[in-house]
Structures are given as structure tokens and as C-alpha cells.
């Protein structure tokens, strides 16, 4: 039996809580075979990022080609793509491949470290957003993409429309950074049919890898054949459970998500 495969093209987290490592755990928790093409190497732990190394573009291309040459890939998740050259390489590699793509526009780490070069913003807007079946920014990432602050739920709605206008087919805008003191976090899912709210009780936990896990969960559901809106709703619930069951493996205060415990809830 050949199970569906999902490919993550993203950065490796040596601390195991985010990036490629979180993506592969999420795929496995959903019963999907996980593939990876490493677009960046990071030296990091629960207290921060200490170094970043970008592999040569031709090696990244070789990884992507190797995966598509052998596996039945039914969804792709994009994460940390640190430079314009990397983004161009990935966009070119996916241009002729008919597969749904979930783009997590990783720009800033939980620790505050900048993970996307300034020149890559243009490539992100022009090459990746039009290829995205779903874009999953948090508020700081959406602000960088749009060039203006987002300070309210109404502002989030306007931002969704602005991001759709840049070419993404659908937007899952995460509201966890909204500084309104509310006990409920509201994410917005926007597509051609309109905007729907996806609320969850706020968990006041400093965590690591939530964005990677959400995008990978959506990609896994798409790989299994689920419709996009259903995939987003189920993925949000999955991340909430994984965050609630999170643990602290390092000496920092940041928690890592319980990917497998959440899958059995």
C-alpha cells in the first residue's frame, strides 16, 4: 500500500521543536509519509537561534527533484526560505508540479531572531504568494508582507483581503499576537467565498513551533484529500491540543508541542 506523502521544504531546527522536525512529526501524527528538502540549517535551542547556514541552491533543487521522482506527493508545505535565491529555486521547482502548496511565511523566530533577508520579501510577494493555495501568516509576518500594522480584528479582515489581492488563493491569518487582552484567540480563514472566524480559548503559554505545526497539519489533511476549509478547522484544533499538552525539554521557558499526544485526543 502506498500512503500519501507530504513534502516540507523548510529550515532544520537543531532543537527539535520547530521547522523540519516539527513538520515531520506532524505528518507522522496524521498518518502521512513525510518527506523533506532542507532549505536552511539553524543552530538553535529553546533559548534562541545562534547560527544559520543556507545550503547551495542546486543541492536544494536536487532534494526536491529526488522527492518528486520517487514519491506520490499530494501536498507541499513551505517554511523557512531565508533568501531570494532560495525562494526563486523553490518557486521554479514547483512551477510545473500540480500539487497543493501551504506557505508558512517564516520571517521571525519565537526568540525574535530575523529569519528572512530583506531582499527576500519581494520574492516572497511575487513568486510564492501567487503559488500558495493557502498562506498562514501570523500578525507580525502579515505586517511585514503588507508594510503596515494590524491592530484589531477589523484590521485583520482588511489584511486578509489585501493578502488575497497579492495572489494567494486563501489566507489563514493567525490572531494570537493581537494585543487585545481577550481570552479567545480568533484566526481568520479567507478565500473567494468570504471570511470565517476560527476561535480557540487563549492558552497563555510561550511555545515554539506552533506556526510550523499548523501549516503542516493543514498540508497533511490536504494530502489525505480533505477540503481546505475542513483541513484548516481540524488543524487549528490539533494545534490547540498539542499546545495544551506541550512540555519543556530544554532550559528555556519555551514549550515544545506534543504532536503525537494531540493526534490521539
Automatic annotation (TrEMBL):
Pathway where it operates: Cofactor biosynthesis; thiamine diphosphate biosynthesis
UniProt cross-references to InterPro entries, sorted A to Z: HMP/HMP-P_kinase_dom, PM/HMP-P_kinase-1, Ribokinase-like
Transmembrane segments: none
Residue span, Pyridoxamine kinase/Phosphomethylpyrimidine kinase domain: 13-254
Keyword Transferase set for record: yes
Entries under CDD domains matching the protein: HMPP_kinase
Any one of the GO BP annotations: thiamine biosynthetic process
Name the UniProt record assigns to this protein: hydroxymethylpyrimidine kinase
Molecular function GO labels: ATP binding; hydroxymethylpyrimidine kinase activity; phosphomethylpyrimidine kinase activity
NCBIfam families: HMP-P_kinase
Record EC number: 2.7.1.49
GO cellular component: cytosol
A Pfam family it matches: Phos_pyr_kin
Class of the enzyme per the UniProt entry, highest EC level: transferase
Signal sequence extent: none
